C-alpha cells in the first residue's frame, strides 16, 4: 500500500496534496495555491525569515501523542511533500476570533512595523518563542529573532515587542491546533509510504530502511532529502529539483538518539536544534558552537547528517566531527533479496575531494556518532565570518588537547601545562575539511610561547586555501594560524 499524496493540516484544515503541488516549495504553494499570501518571500534562501511558518513535528512514534508541539521554520526552501504528516500554521492562522495574537498585538503596540513586509515573519518567530517561554529576556528574544531581517523599521521597536509580549493559554498554537483529527492523521500518515510524482520527477518517502535502500539501489543518482536547507537554496537559485528524491521522514529509527558512556549516536533525521540540546552534556563546546550555526528556523529542521553529506569544506560541524572520533553509519541494499548492508566510515575517510564523499552508489547515511568530550580535554571550536550570526565561515578551526597540568598555568614562575595529545582540524583551508596529524604531533610536550608560535607557522605552511568571495588564500592562511595562536594562548594563560 502506498499513498500518492502528502497529508498536511493547514491552519486546522486537512489537505491531501499531490503531483505538481507536492513538489512546489512550501512558501510558493501557500501563496499561489492555498491563497495564503500573508507568508512573504524575500530572499528565497533561508536568510531573512519573511516566510516563517510554524510546523508541528512529524516523528513516527509508537507512543500516543496528546499534543502537537510547534516550531518556526522557513517555508521558502522546503517542498510541500516534506511537510507530510505535520500541521502548518501560517500568519493567517494566528488571529483568535476578532483578536490579534499576542505577538501581532505587541508588534502593533510597539509600532514595530513600517512597510510590513517582514512583519508576518517576525510575528511567527515571536509566536514560536511564546510556545516555549511565557515571557522572554533579552537573550531569549534575540535568539528567537536571529533569523529575521527588517530593512525599514529598525530593530529597537521589534525587540521591545518581543520583550513585552506575554504568552496566554488561549493563544497557544499547540493548544489551538492539537485537535484529535489532526493528531490521528499525523500518526496515520507515518504508517504508509508516500510516492509523489510529476512530469518525470518523483519523491519517495518509505516507512522502512529496507524500502529506502531498495529504492536507492534501483534508482541510481537518487538524492536524499534531509530538510532541504541546502538543496532548497540551489533549487531557488535556478537548479532543477533532482528527478529522483527520497525523504527519510517516515523511518522511525532515524530519529533516535543513543547515549553511551563513551559517546553519542544521532539518527539522520535528528535536527541540529536537538543535537545542540543533547550536546550540552556530551560535548559542551560543540553545543556552544552550534549557537552560532544559522538561525532557529534553520536549526529546527536542518539535520547534522545533511551538513556532513553536503560535504562543503566550510560546513561548520565537520572540523569538530573530525577531532571527536566522528563515524558515519551507512546502509545500502545487498543482493536481490533486499538485505540491508550496514557499515561505518570514520569521518577522517569520508571526504575524498571537493564535495565528494566516499559513499558507494545507493548508500544512505543512517546515523552519525562521536565521542564525549573527556574531562581532561580542553576544546575550542571557532569560525571566522563577516558577521556573528547567520553567516558562512571563511575559515573554521577545531582544537582539542589532553593536558597534564593545569590550563592557564603558564604564567611567570608557574609550571607550564604539558600536552599529552592533540587533535586539530580546519574547514575552509582546502577542498575538503582537514585533520592535521603532523601539527598534532608537533604540539605534544610542554606548551610554551615558542611552541605555540612554531605550530602556528607550521599550520600556515601546511594548508592550501583557495581565494574566493569569502577571503583570499593569504587571508585564510593568516586567519587559520591566528585562530590557533588565540587558542594556544588561552590554554597557556587562561
Ligand atoms: C540561511 C542558511 C544558513 C545556514 N547556516 C549554516 C551555518 O551557519 N553553518 C553551516 O555549516 N551550514 C549552514 N547552512 C547550510 C545548511 O543549513 C546545513 O548544511 C544543514 O545542516 C543541511 O541539512 P539539511 O537536513 O537541510 O540537508 P539537505 O539540504 O536536505 O541535504 C544536504 C545534502 O546532504 C545530502 N543528504 C542529506 N541527508 C542524507 C542522508 N541521510 N544520506 C546521504 N545524503 C544525505 C543531500 O542529498 C544533500 O546533498 C545554512 C543554510 C541556510 C539556508
Ligand atoms: S524568504 Fe527569506 S528566509 Fe524565506
Ligand atoms: S517593516 Fe519594512 S522590512 Fe520590516
Total beta strands: 22
| Assigned CATH class of the largest domain | Alpha Beta
What is the fold named in CATH at topology level of the largest domain?
A: Uridine Diphospho-n-acetylenolpyruvylglucosamine Reductase, domain 3
| Strand order across the largest sheet | 1-7-8-10-9
Determine the mean pLDDT: 94
Domain count, please report it. Answer: 3
Number of helices: 18
Uncertain spans, ≥5 residues at pLDDT below 50?
none
Main sheet, how many strands, which sense, barrel? Answer: 5 strands, mixed
What bound compounds does this protein have? Answer: flavin-adenine dinucleotide, FE2/S2 (inorganic) cluster
- Helical percentage: 25-40%
Query: What is the correct CATH architecture of the largest domain?
Result: 2-Layer Sandwich
Radius of gyration: 24 Å
- Structural class of the secondary elements? alpha+beta
Termini distance?
A: 62 Å
Strand content: 15-25%
User: What is the 3D shape?
Assistant: globular
Topology of helices and strands:
Layout: E1 2-3, E2 5-10, E3 13-18, H1 19-22, H2 26-32, E4 52-56, E5 70-74, E6 87-89, H3 102-109, H4 119-132, H5 138-144, H6 155-164, H7 173-177, H8 180-189, E7 193-198, E8 201-205, H9 209-218, E9 223-225, H10 231-236, E10 244-247, E11 257-259, E12 263-267, H11 272-282, H12 284-290, H13 296-299, H14 304-310, H15 318-323, E13 327-334, E14 339-346, E15 351-353, E16 356-357, E17 364-371, E18 377-384, E19 395-404, E20 418-427, E21 434-435, H16 437-443, E22 445-446, H17 449-462, H18 473-493
Helix pairs in contact: 3-4, 3-6, 11-12, 17-18
The structure holds flavin-adenine dinucleotide and FE2/S2 (inorganic) cluster (2 copies).
The site of flavin-adenine dinucleotide (FAD) has 31 residues, from β9, α10, α14 and β17.
Amino acid at each position: 500500500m502506498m499513498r500518492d499524496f502528502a497529508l498536511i493540516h493547514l491552519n486546522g484544515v486537512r489537505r491531501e496534496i499531490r503531483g505538481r503541488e507536492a513538489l512546489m516549495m512550501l512558501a510558493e504553494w501557500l501563496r499561489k495555491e492555498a491563497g495564503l499570501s500573508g507568508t512573504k518571500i524575500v530572499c528565497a534562501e533561508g536568510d531573512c525569515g519573511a516566510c516563517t511558518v510554524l510546523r508541528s513535528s512529524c516523528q513516527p512514534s509508537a507512543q500516543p501523542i496528546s499534543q502537537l508541539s510547534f516550531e518556526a521554520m522557513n517555508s521558502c526552501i522546503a517542498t510541500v511533500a516534506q511537510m507530510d504528516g505535520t500541521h502548518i500554521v501560517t500568519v493567517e492562522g494566528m488571529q483568535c476570533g476578532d483578536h490579534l495574537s499576542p505577538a501581532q498585538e505587541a508588534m502593533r503596540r510597539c509600532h514595530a512595523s513600517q512597510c510590513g513586509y517582514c512583519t508576518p515573519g517576525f510575528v511567527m518567530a515571536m509566536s514560536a518563542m511564546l510556545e516555549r517561554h511565557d515571557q522572554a529576556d533579552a537573550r531569549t528574544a534575540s535568539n528567537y529573532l536571529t533569523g529575521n531581517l527588517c530593512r525599514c523599521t529598525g530593530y529597537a521597536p521589534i525587540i521591545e515587542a518581543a520583550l513585552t509580549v506575554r504568552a496566554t493559554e488561549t493563544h497557544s498554537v499547540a493548544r489551538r491546533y492539537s485537535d484529535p483529527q489532526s493528531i490521528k492523521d499525523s500518526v496515520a500518515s507515518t504508517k504508509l509510504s508516500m510516492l509523489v510524482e510529476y512530469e518525470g520527477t518523483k519523491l519517495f518517502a518509505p516507512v522502512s530502511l529496507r524500502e529506502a535502500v531498495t529504492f536507492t539501489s534501483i534508482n541510481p543518482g537518487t538524492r536524499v532529502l534531509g530538510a532541504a536547507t541546502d538543496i532548497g537554496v540551489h533549487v531557488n537559485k535556478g537548479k532543477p529539483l533532482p528527478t529522483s528524491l527520497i525523504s527519510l521522514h517516515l523511518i522511525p529509527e532515524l530519529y533516535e538518539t543513543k547515549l553511551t558512556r563513551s559517546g553519542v549516536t544521532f539518527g539522520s533525521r535528528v535536527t541540529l536544534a536537538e543535537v545542540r540540546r543533547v550536546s550540552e552534556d556530551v560535548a559542551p563546546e560543540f553545543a556552544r558552537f552550534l549557537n552560532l550555526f544559522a538561525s532557529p528556523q534553520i536549526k529546527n529542521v536542518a539535520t547534522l547528517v545533511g551538513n556532513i553529506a553536503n560535504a562543503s569544506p566550510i560546513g561548520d560541524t565537520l572540523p569538530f566531527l573530525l577531532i571527536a572520533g566522528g563515524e558515519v553509519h551507512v546502509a545500502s541494499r545487498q543482493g536481490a533479496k533486499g538485505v540491508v548492508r550496514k557499515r561505518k566510515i570514520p569521518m577522517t575517510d569520508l571526504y575524498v575531494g571537493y564535495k565528494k564523499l566516499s559513499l558507494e552508489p545507493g548508500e544512505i547515511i543512517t546515523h552519525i556518532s562521536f565521542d564525549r568530550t573527556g574531562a581532561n580535554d580542553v576544546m575550542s571550536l571557532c569560525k571566522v565570518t563577516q558577521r556573528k550570526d547567520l553567516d558562512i565561515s571563511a575559515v573554521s578551526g577545531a582544537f582539542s588537547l589532553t593536558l597534564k597540568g593545569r590550563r592557564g598555568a603558564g604564567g611567570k614562575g608557574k609550571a607550564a601545562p604539558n600536552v599529552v595529545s592533540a587533535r586539530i582540524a580546519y574547514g575552509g583551508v582546502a577542498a575538503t575539511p582537514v585533520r592535521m596529524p603532523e601539527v598534532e604531533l608537533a604540539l605534544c610536550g610542554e606548551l610554551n610561547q615558542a611552541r605555540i608560535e612554531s605550530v602556528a607557522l607550521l599550520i600556515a605552511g601546511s594548508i592550501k586555501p583557495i581565494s574566493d568571495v569569502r577571503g583570499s588564500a593569504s587571508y585564510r592562511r593568516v586567519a587559520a594560524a591566528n585562530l590557533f595562536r588565540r587558542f594556544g594562548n588561552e590554554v597557556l594563560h587562561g
